[in-house]
Amino acid sequence: MKFRVERDSLADAVAWTAKSLPNRPSVPVLAGVMLRVADGRLHVSGFDYEVSSQVDVEVQADADGAALVSGRLLAEITKALPGKPVDIAAVGSHLELVCGSARFTLPTMPVEDYPTLPEMPAAAGTIDAATFATAVAQVAVAAGRDETLPMMTGVRVELNGTSIAMLATDRYRLAMRELEWSPNDPDISINALVPARTLNDTAKTLGPLGGQVTLALAHGGAGEGMIGFAGGTRRTTSRLLDGANYPPVRSLFPSTSNAQAKVSVAALVEVVRRVALVAERTTPVLLSFSDDGLVVEAGGSEEARASEAMEATFTGEALTIGFNPQYLIDGLQNLGSATAVLSFIDAFKPAVIAPADDEGEIVPGYRYLIMPIRVTR
Amino acid sequence: MPRERDPRFGPHADDSACGILHVDMDAFYASVEIRRRPELRGRAVVVGGVGPRGVVCSASYEARRYGVRSAMPMMRARSLCPHAVVLPPDFPAYTAASRAVMQIFRDVTPLVEPLSLDEAFLDVTGARRLLGPPATIAAHIRRRVQQEQAITCSVGVAPTKFVAKLGSTRAKPDGMLVVPAGLVLDFLHPLPVEALWGVGEKAAATLRRLGLTTVADLAAAPVSMLRGALGEAAAAHLSALAAGHDPRTVTPDHAEKSIGAEVTFDTDVTDPADIRRALLELSDKVAVRLRSAGHAGRTVTLKIRLADFRTVNRSRTLTGVTDTAREILGTAWSLFTTLRPAEPIRLVGVRVEGLADAASTARQLTLGEPEHGWREAEAATDAVAARFGRSAVGPASLLGATNRRRPENHPRSASVPLSDPPSPS
């Protein structure tokens, strides 16, 4: 294997692939990135048995072949290289890398020990990359991080004809985003539970590339239990989580509300951040809504305390409700609008945050439900 | 350490400002063993792990003469003192003896702060009018412990806690040392810096590099020099101690930090269903105790001891506090299933830590949680139990549970009571 490649495209490709490599690989070869040259292209790939990522880079190929080297090391090296063409060649059990006057020799691992990357499932349809990235970020924020509740660490993706719904919950909040896409089969109806972290990382890289993202999801047969994403020259596959018993969380969104508040998203985020400085880990920020507006408070009678008043348009009976400040900020920050509408039933029932337009009308498509913290005083 | 026999610190020293006593039992575990086996008196007795990896817990003064010390590997103790009688520890016996001794202290003053099974601080300032000056009280305590418990203790009498503790150490064994307020510095200054509370091997080495070997050196050293070597907090702390200052008061009631229960099986258990039933029973017991104390906790710890005595602790911190058996069990069970030990299990325990006052504590609600959930159901069982006793109501899966468990602290009873028996009405 011997080729010449642009420094930036190599560094990008290696950095992205190396990011998904396991920190403590079960077998040493999984710490490697595979460099394979064929048909004038370089394929850079990484795999940890759960997630595979692969990116193609245009190169001047002198000789085809493959080499497996430490992903972390190669990523650090390529990042630090000067902006000159990079020459790479496999020489015996080493990889020679020359860039300008810099020369590196890296040991390689046996290519034949490397597992075969899973096949990409059949393409199911496409969606605008930027829209997809925003939608995933809005939902993934509500997914759980507790590995002992694996179902909660996933985003449920429901593909139904031309609409996609994505849902995630960690039992304390629940986010749902609905949007349109272009399915290959207009009668498609598939549900999948995708690991939230992988989905979020993938969407974050594919979004800025622009264009379309291809979702690949098998109906059964080959590629069952896998999902694939392709955008630009990048491809990721991930194993799905078992979502057969995913609870019917949609019904948790209340159908009615007793009170509503319209607030500026930026102002509320800022106020909550400030006031929450005195809140301890398990203590809430308290939001008191009335005709006069909103007062945000935190802190105990013996500890530090803070309060701040801000403008809010409130309809309904005056209400004081407590929230985990981070959960509140997570919801507000992903609305993608300047104004938020908060709907309440009472201080112990789920509250719903939705984006609103300049007239204060709710924009459908995204809802973030948040469970209050019950405070007894 | 040479014994202090300086008349300035004897029983007739001026004890007028010496309200603090530090009482330390002499070779406590060994003394308790000798008490019940008088034929051991005068012999080298070592209590500790008898296995190949055992460690010395306590050694009689006869054994100490050969260099045997606490926390020393038993192998080494045996080679230092081959004729020593080595006994495995019997903690229930030591706990009982400790309780009796602490009761003697509490007869003197309610201000008793136990540090461990065998030592405590006492504030006797308020007991003077009834019982006389501190040195007299100390002598009285020593006499009672000797007469009633047939073991000896040493007492330090001083104006502050740390000087009292140094005093008892220097009075050992079976002695008393009074450090009059006017002589605190005379007492402290000849001592090596290691004697001070908070000076370990590392700090002592640092101080030695600065040429400071005695407390007097330390007292004379500028604080700025100490600050550079030890940091702000340690420097301030040590200067205060070297000057004889210690603002700590004797605080009798340490707030409970955790509530737990454990059970050792009569025969090692492998069936997960049996484990789950035991965990339910323990979770219920812990939850009842939490609720009756008005506590709720955030961290649930599961303890498992395998047949080969390997002990594993796993804990998880919840988003909010809990005081329900259901949530405690849910967490403990999920910790257990994650662990999935292959070997038979000898003991399981459940503990809730990070306690806070349940009433004033905020609780993060969960999606889909019924308005009247397990918390209310369990509170209702508390109400029923208050009237008819714990046996009247409880988890159905514990009905007909075989009495195969042997509760840790009641070696003779056959079954684990879920709580105290019903009170006669």
From TrEMBL, chain A:
Coiled coil (UniProt feature): none
Keywords, ordered alphabetically: Cytoplasm, DNA replication, DNA-binding, DNA-directed DNA polymerase, Nucleotidyltransferase, Transferase
Predominant place of localization: cytoplasm
Gene Ontology molecular-function annotations: 3'-5' exonuclease activity; DNA binding; DNA-directed DNA polymerase activity; identical protein binding
Record-annotated DNA polymerase III beta sliding clamp N-terminal domain positions: 1-118
Residue ranges of domain DNA polymerase III beta sliding clamp central in the record: 127-247
GO BP of this protein: DNA strand elongation involved in DNA replication
Domain DNA polymerase III beta sliding clamp C-terminal: 250-373
Location of this chain's protein in the cell: Cytoplasm
CDD domains xrefs: beta_clamp
Gene Ontology CC terms: cytoplasm; DNA polymerase III complex
Alphabetized InterPro entries for the sequence: DNA_clamp_sf, DNA_polIII_beta, DNA_polIII_beta_C, DNA_polIII_beta_cen, DNA_polIII_beta_N
Quaternary assembly: Forms a ring-shaped head-to-tail homodimer around DNA.
Family matches, as PANTHER family: BETA SLIDING CLAMP, DNA POLYMERASE III SUBUNIT BETA
Function: Confers DNA tethering and processivity to DNA polymerases and other proteins. Acts as a clamp, forming a ring around DNA (a reaction catalyzed by the clamp-loading complex) which diffuses in an ATP-independent manner freely and bidirectionally along dsDNA. Initially characterized for its ability to contact the catalytic subunit of DNA polymerase III (Pol III), a complex, multichain enzyme responsible for most of the replicative synthesis in bacteria; Pol III exhibits 3'-5' exonuclease proofreading activity.
Family statement drawn from the similarity comment of this UniProt entry: Belongs to the beta sliding clamp family.
Protein name: Beta sliding clamp
Gene behind this protein: dnaN
